[in-house]
Design a protein that fits this description.
The protein is an alpha/beta fold. It is built from 7 helices and 10 strands. Helix content is 30%, strand content 17%. The structure holds fructose -6-phosphate. Fructose -6-phosphate binds next to loops.
């Protein structure tokens, strides 16, 4: 694992964007796994700038997002499809047919989940997976549990994730209780993983995930076993780690 310690959020966003940009330059038809949430927003802004400057070309890029709330249509302003459209896809020259987010309106779980795995396989697998991490160590919606969930599946949100995500909704009652998410195996199959983490609120979980035991009670700890992980984290997030 490589750890990049950055000064602050802006620096983290810049450095992580450089890694994604290098991936796109080196392999213009890369398959990128993407994440939503507050942490990657600055990174996406930087990718938009690089695209507008002609430094990176999304024309042949394929994307797969980690997750989507079950029951939210793509045009809902809290759906992850909407997030990706407004924060990245609408502003770069990606072919929308090549962008994938699990279908939160699909009521047939098998179709939604196995269908997503099949699409990833048909695309040749994920070259680079971008991740954030929840305060409880979740990646995607793989929540702390007694075992690692494997492939794309429907997951119930834990109380702590509902609490963490309610800031985006009018009320706590509006937060969907379940989501389709790539599983741990889906994520671990990516050839390269880049995780972005920022802020003092993540300091405890960063230490547990990357310097504690590998356990499904801290889902991100599994990343210690991946051969090519880059953690890009700011000083606050790394403040409890000796790095
Ligand atoms: C988002 C996702 C989540 C977030 C995590 C951190 O697609 O899968 O696991 O990465 O909840 O969210 P932020 O960045 O808002 O702290």
């Amino acid at each position: 694992m490589v750890i990049y310690k950055t000064k602050d959020y802006a620096d983290m966003s810049h450095k992580a964007a450089n890694i994604l940009a290098a991936q796109i330059v080196l392999k213009p038809n890369s398959v990128l796994g993407l994440a939503t949430g507050s942490t990657p927003e600055g990174l996406y802004e930087r990718l938009i700038t690089l695209n507008k400057q002609g430094e990176i070309d999304f024309a042949n890029i394929t994307t797969f997002n980690l997750d989507e709330y079950i029951g939210l249509p793509p045009e809902h302003d809290q759906s992850y499809r909407y997030f990706m459209q407004t924060k990245l896809f609408d502003h770069v020259n990606v072919n929308l047919d090549n962008t994938h987010v699990p279908n939160g309106m699909e009521t047939n779980e098998v179709l939604a989940c196995q269908g997503y795995e099949d699409l990833i396989a048909q695309a040749g697998g994920i070259d680079l997976q971008l991740l954030g991490m929840g305060p409880n160590g979740h990646i995607g919606f793989n929540e702390p549990d007694d075992a690692f969930a494997t492939d794309t599946h429907a997951a119930m949100l834990t109380e702590s994730t509902i609490q963490a995500n309610k800031r985006f909704f009018a009320s706590e009652a509006d937060v969907p209780r379940s989501a389709y998410t790539m599983g741990i195996r889906t994520i671990m199959r990516a050839k390269k993983i880049v995780m972005v983490v920022s802020g003092i609120g993540k300091a405890v979980i960063v230490k547990q995930a990357f310097f504690g035991p590998v356990t499904p009670h801290v889902p991100a700890s599994i990343l210690q076993l991946h051969p090519d992980v880059v953690l890009v984290a700011d000083e606050e997030a790394l403040s409890l780690c000796n790095v």
